[in-house]
Structure formats: C-alpha cells, structure tokens
Write a structure and sequence with these properties.
Two copies of one chain form a homodimer.
Chain A (H helix, E strand, L loop, with lengths): L12 H15 L7 H8 L13 H25 L5 H18 L1 H8 L4 H10 L6 H14 L8 H20 L7 H14 L7 H6 L4 H6 L2
Helix pairs in contact in A: 1-2, 3-4, 3-7, 4-5, 4-8, 7-8, 8-9
Chain A binds a DNA duplex through loops.
Chain lengths: 220, 220
Amino acid sequence: MFMNKSNFHHGNLKEEFIKHSFKFIEQNDVDKLTLKVLSDATGTSRSAIYKHFRSKDKLMEAIIISGFNKFDHMLAPILKDKNEPLVDRFYKAGFEYIKFAKTHPNLYRLLFGHKYYKLREDLISINDENCSGFGALKVAVIEGQDAGLLKKESAMTRTILIWSALHGLSSLIIDGFMDIDKDIDTIYEELFNSMLESTLDSKVKIASKLPFIGSLIKHK
Amino acid sequence: MFMNKSNFHHGNLKEEFIKHSFKFIEQNDVDKLTLKVLSDATGTSRSAIYKHFRSKDKLMEAIIISGFNKFDHMLAPILKDKNEPLVDRFYKAGFEYIKFAKTHPNLYRLLFGHKYYKLREDLISINDENCSGFGALKVAVIEGQDAGLLKKESAMTRTILIWSALHGLSSLIIDGFMDIDKDIDTIYEELFNSMLESTLDSKVKIASKLPFIGSLIKHK
DNA sequence: TAAAGAAGTTAACATTGTTTACTTTATTTT
DNA sequence: AAAATAAAGTAAACAATGTTAACTTCTTTA
C-alpha cells in the first residue's frame, strides 16, 4: 500500500512548514533547520515540501518575509504612536529593537544577515513608509529633526546611522561579544544619548523613566 | 599505480590550504569554500586535508586566527601611534576598520559573524591589550577619556559602544543595506562626531583633514 | 462518472564532510 | 646501510543534505 488516508494534508501544509520553521529557529540555529526536520515535524515525506516551495531557499524567503512583517509590526507602531513624546518613542523603539534581537536571535540573523540580502533589499524598497520599520524610523527621524531632537543633516544619513548603531549593538549582544547582560542597560543608555542633539540636556532624565533591557529580558 | 612522485607535498601543505582559503574568500562567499575547492586548488585528493586538520571546522578556525592577526595588526598600530594626535588616530582607526570590512567582506563576516563566536571569545580574551585590536581600542579609549575627548563612563562601555557603531555600519555596508557608496563618507563623518564629547567643537575640522572611505576604496 | 490536476510518496542522484584501510615517502633506529 | 616507524598521501565507502523523476492518491470539475 502506498499511503494511508490520514497522511493527506489539505491546503494548510505550506503554512505548517513555515510555522514549524519559526518554532524551530526560536530554539536552534538557522543552519540546523533541514528539510528532514520539517518533514518529521509535519509527518510528511522528505520531498513533500517541493509541492509547496520550489526550493529550500524559497521556503527561507517565505520565512524572511513573514519575519519582517513580525518585525515591522513590532517597530512601526511604537514610532508612530502620537500619544507618546517623540523622545520616548525613540527610546522605546531602540529598546524593543534590541529586545527583538535578543529574544529571537536566529530570526534576527536570518533577517539582517548576509545570505538573503538580495531579498531584504527588495522588501525594504517595496515596503512603503507605512509598514516598514525602516520607513517608519525615517519618518520619525524627520519629525525629530524638525523638533530639534536630532541633527539636521540628510534624514537618510541620520536614519542609517541610528539603524546601524542598533544593528551593531544587537549583533554584538547576540553573537557573543558581551559576557555580562547587566552592562547592556548602561550601553544602550549611552548609545541613545549619543544619538540625540548635544544641546538637549533633558535626554538622560527622559530616557531613564523607561524600562531597561537587561532586567526586562532576564525575567522573561 | 597509486600516486606519482610529484604529488607529495613536504610540510607546507597545511599552509597552502590556509593560503588558498584566504585567496578564495577574497572573491567568494565563505559557504562556497568546500574541501573540494581546496583539494582542487592544491592538487591533492579529497581527504588529504584530514592529515593536517581534524575537521573542516578546525581549518576554519585556523583561518579565523590568522584573519584576526591580520585585522589586529592593521588596527592596533594606528591606535598606538604616538606621533599622531589622538583624534586623528580614532578617525583613522574607524576609517580603516570600515575599509577592512569593505575590502574583505567575506573574511570580515567570518571573523565577526555568529558561527564561530565561541572561538572569537577565546581569541579576544587570550589576546592581551598589546596585540588585539579590541584591546588597543580600549587603551586608546581610556587615553581619550583622560584627555576629555570621550565621555567618562566605564571605559568598557565606551569601547563596546564605539566597536558596536563601527560593526553596525560595516555590516550594513557589506550586507547590502546601502545602495550608494558616496553617502558612506557623510555617514562615517557623523558617526565619528557622535562618538566624541559634545564640548569639542574642533572635531569636524580635524576629521575632515583625513581621507574619505568612499573615494579611497573606489579607486583601489 | 471520467478526466484532470493538486498533493502526496518512493527511489535515486549529486554534493558535502568524514572515516577506514591502504600505499608511498621521509625519518629514525639499530 | 638496512630495517622499522612515522608522516603524508590516495581510494573507496558512509551518512546527511538538497533535489529531481516517476508514480499514486485524493479532490475537483466538466
């Protein structure tokens, strides 16, 4: 006999592959995610996945697209929340950025690593300023420049600079550069202050009202 | 017949493997470096490498160790050159850091990426302040804090912050985040200024005497 | 109800890293 | 110098991985 009836998935197997992939990389390195892992997890054969994705890379791309959605929907609302003072929004966005990387290190590496950068390029240029985290940051940066919070060079320059600082710190944290979690709070505090205009003397006070990364993440 | 005489390497095959690996990743992604590539390049059999390295990972570690030496010997002398003003040393060190990443992107990813972070931890803690780039930066940071050039929180905090900013910008550049090279100069200029004490008003002038990244690398 | 297409399976392939058994060269011992 | 031993190479086979081709079963639709 070739197959028993219960093995037949009807339409949702594609989503199941993605879902299991997400669950897997919450706990394991991305390069440990093999097609065997997924066929075992879904109870299908080794090649079933090819009915839903042209290749493993296409599956990874689907994960990345979905991951960027998750990331963007975490970041953009914080930056656009008009009820909060702008400084607080910046502080919280940076905070949540690093927290995201720390909480989902494998997903973060997948999203911002080198291997699929072509796809990311497409995603970032396709996404308009309303959905993309990068786009939302750029809008907020312009707002911050108008309010005298950020230096008034090109908005793109300032946006990349902020992103780059967050990306750098996040990467060092999740890639094993820093042994002690408790320093992260201090470092982020300083990073945050470095980003703001030097004329602003209220910045430390405003920032320190908000929660800290080390503490928050440790007790999760 | 089993083997002709000319095939026998005498003692230098190990170095040849490393040398060819370096040459290869100058032009290709690290994950394209297979044992077949190396056996073809050295004219040996597929398994000859196992007489010199316990596994492929051990070869990669040798490459990383050698790569860090290269990196450290590029960075440390710049930071320790007492003939240059400290600001210039900082500026040039950051400049050369980014240039290194841009010139050897695959090696840079190997050195600072996630996969072999365990080894890097060992290397950085083993290397003393005299040879390691990180160590040299920390020494320079203390000097900079004493001179009123950098903020006077913990030296480790400030060092990590600088490193993280350079790492973040370098990563964004080599991982395809930025389409236009000419903006890199401006961004580095701003990054550099953000790092210095806000009371220092000579910083832009001092910095702009020095060469720019985009231009320098483009005509290489 | 028959045909067609979607969604599975099985079996085979090439590529990769790796191991084992063997051979050749170099070195050391007697 | 001859013999023994170690070092450095080869060939052949493995398991794991991504992938493809040929086949089967379920679902839909004309």
